[in-house]
Write a structure and sequence with these properties.
Structural class: mainly alpha
Radius of gyration: 26 Å
Number of domains: 2
Helix content: 55-70%
Oligomer: single chain
Length: 503
């Protein structure tokens, strides 16, 4: 009887050990760390500037009025628009959060945590448990990755869909999982909807799909490959069709802008790829400096290169390593041919690949060297976390200023203008509309009063009288009626001054 009880207990403990292995416990701790770093005081630290305000204004119009979205955010270069799927992605969260912008920010944070899990999964399948746990930890604490998982913005979901594309390509190429091709098409389309740098995911994806076709073209599996490929192409075209519909209605303005970006803008893109090769070390340095310091330059990167080359030599027969290097070098080469400043979020599609490569190469080095180096990288990342710095309170500021303007408007119609160094007014307009303020559009109607927000105080000329900003100019001759300081910004109320005398 006692022996039977012991056997039952042993079986239960065995099941428990399988379910709660050390690896899973460590992964859970990593995911909890990732979640904490991303959602800690998210309402206080999240960005809520012009782009975020624009997004929620558009999504609220869809939720309340059923106004379908055929284009997404406008890019910073030219008259180019992304697809609309990021808007649809954040719409449920905005609705569930009762139209608080914190809802979409939490959605991005959760996708960021999901990306940490995906980093672990991909690294485990291609490189093993040690690399998987180390790469997940590095990705969980990377200050730049954490920062761009802390607020709602279309490029912030790029790492998830980029890594998903890499993983699915591997499964199709190495495991002949051809049914994954439509899912690959979906992930590539979503990456392209988050940022046009998603285009740099296409060359390696097409290359490995071509190798897969070559490998199977004389076998019975050729049809098994061709059918999902056709379905994948249809899925991709379906997801990109809103942009096509928009272009059909607007004389192909978006297509012409994209074409001009690659063929006319000599100051933007260098189409001679070989010229970017010499810039690869500089671009790689910026990538890794961003990952661990959130800076654009890190001098130790250069003298650490021989160490990582040693890791590559030790693992030169590893097919997974070369697969990742193709994606990594293709992305770096694409960025090296971009002639303007490369911002941190431009590297988003490369962050997961770069972190997995670092983790794998560290595991190939002598442990007395790799362990201190890994610990040092984690230390650098954690000390560069944005949570150590004062919060920006951008969301609170926008809401407080909006309420103050409504209160000072005395229920009468008013117009709004913003004088700013690097912002525009949708965040304030969003809360004014949400609180049912009597805000009007000067394109359609003249107001009796104009509220002018000036930020940041001390860095721009805050004198609104005679300012060339278009709402101020459209309001006509004006004088300052009242002036306030609210949440660290200056706020003016202008009224008409037909005689044209400055106040």
């Amino acid at each position: 009887m006692e022996s039977a009880s012991l056997k039952i207990l042993d079986r239960r403990l065995s099941v428990f050990n399988r379910k709660f292995s050390l690896e899973k416990i460590l992964l859970l701790l990593i995911l909890l760390t990732a979640a904490f770093l991303r959602v800690y005081r998210i309402a206080d630290y999240m960005e809520f500037l012009g782009d975020q305000g624009r997004d929620v204004v558009i999504v609220v119009r869809f939720l309340k009025q059923g106004d379908l979205m055929f284009i997404g955010p406008q890019t910073s270069i030219g008259n180019m628009y992304l697809g609309p799927w990021y808007y649809y992605l954040i719409a449920p969260a905005l609705l569930l959060a009762n139209f608080s912008p914190v809802g979409p920010a939490l959605t991005v944070a959760l996708i960021g945590v999901a990306t940490v899990w995906l980093v672990w999964l991909v690294a485990k399948q291609l490189f093993g448990i040690t690399t998987a746990l180390l790469s997940a930890l590095l990705f969980a604490v990377s200050p730049v990755v954490v920062y761009y998982s802390n607020f709602s913005w279309n490029p912030n979901v790029m790492p998830f869909f980029a890594l998903l594309s890499v993983w699915l390509t591997w499964l199709i190429w190495q495991k002949n999982e051809f049914k994954k091709i439509p899912f690959l098409a979906f992930s590539l389309a979503m990456a392209l909807n988050s940022h046009y740098l998603g285009l740099l995911l296409f060359p390696p994806a097409v290359f490995f799909l071509f190798l897969t076709w070559v490998k199977n073209r004389k076998t019975k599996q050729n049809n098994a490959f061709s059918r999902p490929l056709i379905v994948g192409i249809l899925v991709f075209l379906l997801l990109m069709s809103p942009l096509l519909i928009f272009d059909l209605k607007h004389q192909f303005v978006n297509f012409e802008s994209v074409l001009a970006f690659f063929t006319v803008r000599q100051t933007t893109v260098n189409l001679k790829a070989y010229k970017g090769v010499l810039l690869l070390p500089k671009i790689a340095n910026q990538l890794f400096s961003n990952l661990f310091l959130r800076e654009d330059f890190w001098a130790p990167f250069y003298w650490s290169l021989p160490v990582f080359f040693l890791g590559i030599l030790k693992a030169k027969k590893n097919k997974s390593l070369w697969f990742f290097l193709v994606w990594f070098l293709t992305g770096l080469l694409g960025l090296s041919n971009y002639k303007q400043h490369i911002y941190a979020h431009y590297f988003g599609f490369l962050w997961p690949v770069a972190v997995i490569l670092i983790a794998f190469l560290l595991t190939k080095l002598f442990w007395l060297f790799s362990l201190p180096l890994a610990g040092y990288l984690i230390y650098l990342a954690l000390t560069s976390w944005h949570g150590w710095r004062p919060a920006n309170f951008q969301l609170k500021r926008a809401e407080t200023v909006a309420q103050f303007i409504i209160d000072q408007s005395s229920g009468e119609e008013f117009a709004l203008a913003l004088i700013a160094e690097m912002n525009y007014d949708p965040p304030y307009r969003y809360f004014i509309d949400l609180k049912k303020g009597a805000l009007i559009d000067l394109h359609q109607k003249m107001a009796g009063q104009l509220f002018v927000i000036c930020e940041p105080w001390g860095k721009v000329d805050c004198n609104p009288v005679g300012h060339p900003q278009w709402q101020i100019a459209a309001f006509g001759w004006a004088k300052i009626d009242w002036e306030w300081q609210v949440e660290g910004i200056r706020l003016f109320r202008l009224i008409h001054n037909p005689e044209g005398k400055s106040s």
